[in-house]
Design a protein that fits this description.
The chain has 30 helices and 18 strands. The protein is α+β, with helices and mostly antiparallel strands. Helices cover about 50% and strands about 10% of the residues. The structure holds zinc ion (ZN). The site of zinc ion (ZN) has 8 residues, from loops.
Amino acid sequence: MIDRSTIERILDAAQIVDVIQEFVSLKKRGVNYLGLCPFHNEKTPSFTVSPSKEIFKCFGCGKVGNSVNFIMEHEHLTYPEALKYLARKYHIEVVEKERTPDEIEKQNERESLLVLTAYAARQFLENLFQSDEGISVGLTYFKERGFRQDTLKKFDVGYSFEKRDAFSKKALEDGYRQDFLVKTGLSIQHEERIFDRFSGRVMFPIHSLSGQVLGFGGRILKADPKSAKYVNSPESEIYHKSRVLYGIFQARKSITHEDRCYLVEGYTDVMSLHEANIENVVASSGTSLTQEQVRLIKRFTQNITILYDGDPAGIKASIRGIDLVLEEGMNVKIVLLPVNEDPDSYSRKVSNEEFIRYLRDNETDFIRFKTQLLLSEARNDPVRKANLIRDIVKSIAVIPEAINRTVYIKECSIVLEIAEPVLYHEVNKLRQQKSFQDRNKYPGPEDLPLQPPAVIKPVQHKTLSYYSEKEIIRLLLKFGSEELERHIRSEDGKEELMTVSDYIVREITSDDLSFNDSICEKIFADYKFHVEHGLFPGDKHFVKHEDPEISSMSADLLAESHELSRIWKDKQTFVETEDMKLRDIVPDVVLKFKSDKIKMRLDEIMIQIKEADKAGDTERVLALQKRDQNLKAALMMISKKLGNRILL
Ligand SMILES: [Zn+2]
């Protein structure tokens, strides 16, 4: 029993945003915070946290409560356990009444098992650092592999003695119950005797999100053909292989911060990446990824990057599981490591900077990767190529967002040399099959079959303003209705709100500028019409537009990681904080657009001057030169304003 005053102190200390943020990636929206609900599966966030009211509420599944309720629900803890959890977090000493033997007896099994695994982790740690055998065998192994002391401590690694019942015996002596030792899988009972499951192994504790030890992985150190190299805890009340990810406890903050999660295969891969300063990394511990694991990652980020060693057979086997990640609407990237290297070996071979650069430079979108991989295998064999197309179509079909499917269809049509309408047809056919819909139970309004674009676009010559034009349209579609600035009107003192679309339409109309790209021009005209009538068309208006050129360009622009971002020098910060920095970004993009237009005009003038000169029209030459100087002055001013934020 926890006394009343301690409970009050805990409740006072537990700031709800702080508590929940540890498990859910939250973004500030007005006075509240918003994130993806950890209690049900969702693609658009409806989980709201109110710091002023000290409550959370999910508008999707209806779960509601305060910080203690959240911990109870999320960590499957009882009320006193949740309070103790928060007390630990905020360093509050819990004054507890002595428990009666009866109460101890009633302690639920789950808690007992957790107490036991925590004890075991401490024992193994002690063995590794404080016993002769641990130091000479276990610690030497880690040192030979090049691990630093702080990394070993961070992951609480340990060592289990060689003697077949050393741990079990010690645990029984310390008062732990034999049935619990067997239930956690730490010990194996054979007739009357009890043995250690992990004897002679270095130990990797597997933590829950909140840092509780759920189970262990153990690696044997002796060359013994009869024993498996790695042994894991068996399934138990507390350990479910399919629901845990090794390293998630140590990675969760960094995953949120970096908005990306790296996935590797083994325990030591995770630890090595930490040593290379990459902390947003987890391992699925040898098993292929499960849906629960994907959802666990999804609470923190939508972006997952899988690191593969360069072994083609292994890759082919594991890419089958990745459709599962796509189904969850996550963005999957692949990094293929150099031949004969794994994340552990390669991160040690090169410097941290080189390693990070390698990951960044070799990241390939999953569907692109899969297409290339299968294509190189199929070569010119028509039967294999047909199979390959079916395979790729299956991967595209499971992607929940229509926009992303559109983008992939476009790309694959080029790479595979198959007409887009054919791919649309195949994808839609698959999505309409009953078996497919049963498996993907969350059809949204976006699930309407996609319309193939009726017009196959001719390849357009990219003008200088190609990217800035599209960037303007993208900002309109994505952020048109967002507030850009407020000011007080001088006439009547009323506050006036300027949105992103007000600004863009005003700037472009007042300078009488137009778009070279005919589809951009169409979208802009349509948008302008709406704005001038006080309406916001919204992105759906364009994505679902009856003109297929407009709908496909809109979908393309709204899809993430679009090539347009190439006008930005610092792409990372741009993408991450785009919506928060609209006030800087929008005027910059408009300036870039204007500067492109001026440059194009200058090119025209140059030709006109040459022509006028040839014709001997001095007056026209002078007029054109004057125009040329004015434009150059304007260009200079723009460049100054833009500084070096944009690639000019
Ligand atoms: Zn919910």
